Amino acid sequence: MELKALYLYAAVLAVLLCSSVNFIQSPTDVLGPVALLKPTPSSASDFGAVVSDAPFAVMRPESPDDIALLLGALSSAGPSPRATVAALGAGHSLHGQAQARGGIVVETRALPCDVQVVAARAHGDSGGATTVPAAYADVGAGAMWVEVLEECLKFGLAPPSWTDYLYLTVGGTLSNGGISGQTFKHGAQISNVLQLEVVTGKGEVVTCSPTKIPELFFAVLGGLGQFGIITRARIPLQLAPPKVRWVRAFYDSFETFTGDQELLVSMPEQVDYVEGFMVLNEQSLHSSSIAFPAQLNFSPDFGSKGRKKVYYCIEFAVHDFRQDGSSADHVVELVSGKLSYMRPHMYSVEVSYFDFLNRVRMEEESLRSRGLWDVPHPWLNVFVPKHGITQFKDLLMDTVSADFEGLILVYPLLTDKWDGNTSAVVPATPDGVMYIFAVLRSTDPARCGRACVESILAQHRRVADQACRDGGGRRIGAKQYLARQPSPAHWRDHFGSGWGRFAARKARFDPLHVLGPGQGIFPRTD
Ligand code: FAD
């Protein structure tokens, strides 16, 4: 360990020298295998495929102590400590947020990614008692959610809150929010954490929780990698249903669609998952249905140019704890009787809990097979207060052409499920309801080159500016999610009244601004 520490200090010193005076060409030449490695293509790329900033070096830590040595050295007074550090999870950021130009990328997947399930005697019955007091999983932050799910299911347990796609790391989603169709009921993933182990920007390894060093705990949740690198997380668990009844219902009116979504989220006792999406064309109907194993008998008229018709689909699910599926069927019948979908266009299937949670994997495989996965993804994610959703939808529609490739998710979230102590930013909502609008575009390089991707990004910027900053007319007051803001001034606007607290937390936990350069919030100080 001491020898390793020595190597690491030498490595850090080499990086400091390299990044300040470009003195040594390759840190690996100087250091041997222990500490810093040459950059790999994945350290300068991400899912967005829009930004590519190469780091100077990569670190594959074997333990939090390795990260502590690195950050401790970079944040102590020394020779030109200019290098920055970004944690890299699964690299599914959209705009270079996990990159560090000329700095060091710490690959959290190299940390132990074990998932330790600690369960008190589980209880539960078909009547729907699904809580297991004191059941939790202690997981390495580089573990992907699919790995957490696989391990927990061996005990008949699962975390309550998810993202749609499971090949994201625990540390990556906890640094943002982590939302899906369960969020209305259980809160985002950042609201479902009992304890964290974090290496702060100053190189201290700290275990924190809502009662132990709460300021660090809440800073790091939704903290965009600015305060520390999460190395472990303790996630509460609940009983996992063997099966899920998964329902889709179609609408031709936005108001009826959102009205029914709000009705569904007002029934958390019955309903376990609520999402929805816009059906813009045949392609969006087909691509969103890949994982849904039901024959859809829905071929709507999408109208013609200038008279386009848009449809909407609600997706909800009910957990089923009975092997014969009868309990969920009964709930679905009851709930759907209250909905105003286009009759008879409601479809339902029963699938295993794992297949339900892992549904986007099938879409990934389909896109990969068509060469449409590793392509630029100019995505836009915005939290819109309920009062602004029609205005926002109209703004968005102006940017959507007939050949739109991808999906636009729209579903409601309840703001009282968000803990205001965390660093995550959500809009003010007088009625407690906001919607996520997620514009998930894939661009085929054969049809949309660099200039075309840039123009989509510019359109999204205009929509975000109008919705989030005051675009004149009626103010929407939306907030972006997962975005890299274009300047520190935009970040201050984004945080609004929360900016002072965010900046104070930065000063306390990462005073020299070593961490998270890819977000562009705090320029590195000397
Ligand atoms: P990375 O991209 O590697 O990192 C993201 C940010 O977190 C960076 O700033 C990085 O420096 C920081 N970071 C990473 N690990 C750590 C750590 N251990 N400690 C501190 N900081 C860290 N989001 C949702 O909320 N819901 C969804 O349903 C959803 N679906 C998605 C589907 C796809 C196909 C994709 C590509 C993204 C989706 N996302 C979704 C967005 C996703 O949650 C974020 O992009 C998330 O950050 C990705 O995790 P990652 O492990 O790839 O993180």
Automatic annotation (TrEMBL):
GO terms for molecular function: cytokinin dehydrogenase activity; FAD binding. The keyword Ligase does not apply. Residues 51-240 form the FAD-binding PCMH-type domain. GO terms for biological process: cytokinin metabolic process. It is an enzyme of class 1 (oxidoreductase). Its cofactor is FAD. Keywords: FAD, Flavoprotein, Oxidoreductase, Signal. Residues 1-26 form the signal peptide. SUPFAM superfamilies: FAD-binding/transporter-associated domain-like, FAD-linked oxidases, C-terminal domain. Its EC number is 1.5.99.12. The keyword Transport does not apply. It comes from the Eukaryota. PANTHER family: CYTOKININ DEHYDROGENASE 8, GULONOLACTONE OXIDASE. Monomer. Belongs to the oxygen-dependent FAD-linked oxidoreductase family. This is cytokinin dehydrogenase.
